[in-house]
Amino acid sequence: METQQEYLDKMAEMVVEMEDEDIAEVCQEYIDKGFDAKQGIFDGLIKGMQQASKLFDEEEYFITDILLCSDAMYAGLDVLQKHVEMNDDDILGVGVIGVVEGDTHDIGKNLVKLMMQTAGFKMIDLGRDVKLQNFIDAAVENDADLICMSTLMTTTMDNMGKVIEMLKEQGLRDRFKVMIGGGPISQAFADKIGADSYTENAVEAVEAAKKLVGKDQ
């Protein structure tokens, strides 16, 4: 491989093909040739993960495949992320992110967190099966701009609305922008519970977050 695009395409392919043992070497070659680390993350690793997610949506990949793809992505990320320079002036905003109480599916949440971090947001990861008050406490404690909630289960969707109601009850609703996402979530549901933003994927989430904090120019 010689061109940057060849390396980006290879990284994406290796994520899709779950090649977690060899991807770090390719990423190191990419860096050694002087190519941009952030572009490698977005246009290589994350692009591959998005392709894998599409295969999952089309039922060609199963959850075990997606986990192996994410292993490959993180193996590459370990190499590239060390070469992404960011100082306090580059931080676009602060967000707390987690999977709502009752749900332990966190692949989508992890991808959104990764893309938002790479784009310049400081993300506080609360993990999965997060108690509702913890979203609010973490947002206050970290002086966050965004509360980002995810779920893949219809049975836990209503917990997102409960967090918004709790924010209102505690006089904090106007202090934070609330973003939601996940498989069963829709714009209609977001409108119903009063969320500030709903996005279908990690790319849209980054753009929406920038708009919510006024950094979309």
Automatic annotation (TrEMBL):
Keywords: Cobalt, Metal-binding. This is Corrinoid protein. Gene3D superfamilies: Cobalamin-binding domain (3.40.50.280), Methionine synthase domain (1.10.1240.10). It comes from the Bacteria. Residues 1-92 form the B12-binding N-terminal domain. PANTHER family: METHIONINE SYNTHASE. The keyword Endoplasmic reticulum does not apply. Residues 92-217 form the B12-binding domain.
